[in-house]
User: Fold this.
Amino acid sequence: MNALITEDVLQMVSKQIDALEKWGHGSQELNETAFNEAFNTDKYLYGFFEDNQGIRERFSNTMTWVSGMDAMSYRHILAGFDWPSLGEATVVDVAGSLGACSVKIAEANPRLKMIVQDLPEIVKRAQDPASSVVPEAIRG
Assistant:
């Protein structure tokens, strides 16, 4: 996590005022942010991640670390929605990274089919047995 903060986030923070002066407070464009100023790119954040493995991995590793914090525990997602009320249904986890959250939902709700969507490089990592977090018993 420290690498993401020191190498990436602090650069974005330092460009916040520049971005506001350039695009104002109301821009809804995905590529008009402090991130774009910091990294001198017209790509939106996740598009940039696709071409820049280092920052993508730092971000992904940080999200995995954050998900282990008590405040971000998957138990909140399990308790915060009545998953069994969906019956036999398909749930799409958009930007679900390696699928850890979907695994917890699927394990607690075996009638649900989970689909995890993410960037192509993240999907490759999720499908690689060396980095997959999906137990063999529930892989589809």
Notes: The mean pLDDT is 90. The chain has eight helices and two strands.
